[in-house]
Amino acid sequence: MGKRVRPFGVLLIGMVIVISGCHTAPDSKWQWYKGALHVHSLWSDGDEFPEVVAQWHRDHGYSFLAMTEHDRIAQDDRWIDLDEDFGEAVAEGMTTDPARLPRSLQKRANRVTGAQQMRLSTLDEIRPHIEQPERFILVNAEEITDTCGKKPVHVNAINLGTAIKPQHGPTVVATIDNNLRAVREQSESLQRPMLAVVNHPNWKYGITAKELAESHASFFEVYSGDPSVNHLGDDRHPPVERIWDLANTIRLACLKRPPLWGIAGDDAHEYGDLGMHRMCPGRGWVKVRSKELTPSALISAMNRGQFYASSGVAIRKIRTSSIMLKLEIEPDGGAIFTTQFIGTLYDPDLVAEHGYAGAINPGRIGTVLATVYGRQPSYNLTGKELYVRAVVTSSKPKDLPTYRGQLEQAWTQPVHCIDLKSRG
Ligand SMILES: [Zn+2]
Ligand SMILES: [Zn+2]
To answer: What is the pTM of this model?
Structure first.
């Protein structure tokens, strides 16, 4: 999204960027902060109170949480009918436990229907009880829940001041861009950084790689813990990770624009029954390297690419330059790590003279350039790479997998060294 221009290609020449944890002298203030950027509560269609959702994430080692409610921020006066909005949670016996109910809970009868209602706490009401400096913060957020025809176009907007209505558009690309523009305009108006993420492109196969490439999105979900998002694609649609490579090849080879960066999230809606087919918390997250735990610092770090996406693998250090991509992976018991360096090599024949739709040879896109085993994998760039990225796969099976055979992974951001146009 908009305010940022990534002069990455130019800056990388002759320069080494180290993205590392707090162990690294002399930069001892830098830390990895774990964050959830896609989560729902009873404020939209999640099945738990926001207090419970916040406490779950704090208890599970997260440092920041953005509750991305559909088309609203948890900041107004909102009452829910127990019969309708709350029915499923009550039926499962989750939040009827008095010990888990928020102390601030207020009840009343609906004046029209007589149904019992509960008032939901706002983020500002929850913050004094859950936030702690350098330990845990809540970030205002919304999932702008748009459609284009029958295709869902969902954009998470993080660190918003006020909710943004779906902006709509005649095409999927225009729909994405109109929503990104609304976030950018609010960011400029309120003078604070905001993050916009295009969610789950393969959910209902709403967004193609070409559409993602042509949009002005900077961030998208490369992994979602929602089991229904078609992470692996099907006979007619590529896997989400492949979409990343297709889109970034189009961006870099044809549009001369910065590549997309990938986040992982949960799209969590269900907090009681942690089953494989449920939309549970704790499957995907981001780790952001920042000097302080504030929304502005975290978003600024993400805009600089100082983060990675994970479904379980922890990375201690990421070192990038125009000639190298090197990782140091945190040990995890006896787990064995395999790192694939994936990229597209530049080739003058890669793009046909007239347009690019269908002109790029799919066999040359997002290929495995090297496979390295162990905790310190590295790749030396040859100068032919449009980009290269690393995906680390552990031998450890994923708890609550979203697909059969899933192993824990981490995805680093693509490194490239070509001149780019400014983001328009
Ligand atoms: Zn969504
Ligand atoms: Zn969602």
So the answer is: 0.88
